[in-house]
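Holo prediction — zinc ion.
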Amino acid sequence: MGEPEAGSECAIGAAAAGPMADTQYILPNDIGVSSLDCREAFRLLSSTERLYAHYLSRAAWYGGLAVLLQTSPEAPYIYALLSRLFRAQDPDQLRQHALAEGLTEEEYQAFLVYAAGVYSNMGNYKSFGDTKFVPNLPKEKLERVILGSEAAQQHPEEVRGLWQTCGELMFSLESRLRHLGLGKEGITTYFSGNCTMEDAKLAQDFLDSQNLSAYNTRLFKEVGQDGKPSYEVRLASVLGTEPNLDSEMTSKLKSYEFQGSHFRVTRGDYAPILQKVVEHLEKAKAYAANSHQEQMLAQYIESFTQGSIEAHKKGSRFWIQDKGPIVESYIGFIESYRDPFGSRGEFEGFVAMVNKAMSAKFEWLVASAEQLLKELPWPPAFEKDKFLTPDFTSLDVLTFAGSGIPAGINIPNYDDLRQTEGFKNVSLGNVLAVAYATQREKLTFLEEEDKDLYIRWKGPSFDVQVGLHELLGHGSGKLFVQDEKGAFNFDQETVINPETGEQIQSWYRSGETWDSKFSTIASSYEECRAESVGLYLCLHPRVLEIFGFEGADAEDVVYVNWLNMVRAGLLALEFYTPEASSWRQAHMQARFVILRVLLEAGEGLVTVTPTTGSDGRPDARVRLDRDKIRTVGKPALERFLRRLQVLKSTGDVAGGRALYEGYAAVTDAPPECFLSLRDTVLLRKEARKLIVQPNTRLEGSEVQLLEYEASAAGLIRSFSERFLEDGPELEKILTQLATADAQCWKGPQ
Ligand SMILES: [Zn+2]
């Protein structure tokens, strides 16, 4: 699981947006741009560690390009077009040309921000919220810049061809194209355009029946002349159909009849990209610090070569065993947030370096974990038989390739490994530092008297929340499972459901997992459970002591942590789509649910009030009564957390859905009138910051760190220099892969 920081996903006024487009679908010109600072941690690496970090970073950056193919039909072409433009002319040179073509400074800046947004999100849909963003300037003007550019003069047919392929879609805000989704609901490239939720469910049942993981797959449906559907499940791998003798995968690559439908399992998705990933993982392996890292990389190489999630699991097992490395990394098809069905993973790869001071605090938390788990409001039988102490460190990110950078991670996501082998928790310190830099004037929806306190304590309180969320949130709770031999991992006679007072009536059968069973609500429900654990346990004096807070400071940390959650619950409305009655971001949905639970607790604990801002436009205020956190808030959260855990442990999908979807429903019911408040949230919304990442480059036998200025132009330069040698080759690969599937994306008829 990847964790975005609470609340700070919003950063800059909508008023700055021009008249061109609905402000929801553009990135504003004054969007915050920050550089990721990892200089000190990189300086402390040995030259071997730097080489290891360098080659892993290369592998991550190459693999991250697959996200373009996982996002929208046009994203690979847009990326190729932008990369060509900026390779031929850097942002300053292109600016001269753009102004000469009649663009205003604002229009050119809008183009730079758009390009930086495409690179940051690895596509033209926001990684956080899944909405499309379009360039905030007239299409005709952008066309003039592109067709008159140096790149177009060098390669006129190719540049014109790219523009013809993606220009319309780049600007289109046709309703189905406005956000990611399945079938009529939106755009996805995890499924061919003719797939529906029914197809997705059938495919999941098929995958479960064959013990195949969905993580590295996409689904393509064809309907034969007899009207019978035929599905291709395509695995990501370097190898295609060529026979390969000694792989567990080969036996699965065949045709199946399943519930009256035809299924064909194939592989070779993203093959040329994964080829580059594998080459650089091979190079990194030569500089591994220990045999865990070597074996881990060998398994990842096997996984990407063969298309085997089993090999990735084996690699993840070695990765878990590699405790507290100086250079930490993870790579693969990891997070399932952006698959509309919730089980296909988006590619990500990161490389980070240990941050010693913060890690010490987290170690204290780990040491207290067993004691703190007992404080959670469910019976011991609902807790794991043995708490597997996870590795919990604070890292500074060197490279984070994929669609976005989270503030913390808790992986692997494989349930079976999490239950038996454990997992690792990582807080990404330099990412949090970027997020903390809050300006007072950009703090929406808070009372004036709360603002200074909020700014003072947001960082420290979020450290506490992230630590608890990752370690005791995602790390807690047991799933009741019956294995393939029929044996249970709980005592059917004695374990009692505390909600019903009866014996356990439901559980997970062999092959069923949390994600496959709870599918569309699994991610958000689990984030909600982890966030709730954080709020609940931050009240514990021992926790505050570990992080070095006592007395009035400790109370302020608690207050700001709860206040931040309540505010985030309101900000979350940005990520709700009323037309589809659906949420687009798991963590934000979770925070809205928590706000609802705390509102339901009543007694004036939380109030949300519509107001009018000093600019005369609608505004709102959230208030939290700090004296009622322990007397009203805590018992409400306790009841809610117990229900969440019991329904999760028992695999009670119907009960879980009823509970979770009930709280997640957004209506105009008084007193809050959330649907109307959503308009205010959109009006006052601030754009998520863009983050500029460094490059590493091998000079002789030494690895150098190359940093870039914190601006849209700096971010674009970082990408232009990222693929100096093989940029044109990569763009060709991406457009060829996109073209090969181009006929699949037509929507439902
Ligand atoms: Zn989480």
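READOUT: The domain at 197-271 is CATH 3.30.70.2600 (Alpha-Beta Plaits).
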